[in-house]
Design goal:
The chain has about 120 residues and is an all-alpha fold. Helix 2 runs antiparallel to helix 3 and helix 3 runs antiparallel to helix 4. The chain is elongated and about 55 Å long.
Amino acid sequence: MTTTDADQLTPEAAVEPAADHAPGAGTDHDHGVHGYHQQKDEHLKRLRRIEGQIRGLQRMVDEDVYCIDILTQVSASTKALQSFALQLLEEHLRHCVADAATKGGDEIDAKVEEATKAIARMMRT
């Protein structure tokens, strides 16, 4: 995965509240609470575990471990990141896209297009 691809996996900045909502009457999503918020600690723990796998790869290279053994670990790390991305996508659909659907209008189309592009990026990796 390139740095550019990794940058695309980062969550978006908080979305501004819709103009037609009264101040303070918006949803959690309006206030920058994203779909992964409730599982944030679990996600951070999972990412730290993946980080450990990557550090293990560095150590394996440093210690001149056999190529195939390193490739096996690369595959495991890649699968772990893909699994994390899929979980994050599911939470995005359940929270952010569902929130846009309740608001209607152009926002739902934008969120569906955004999710479709994210899925396409995931499929390329």
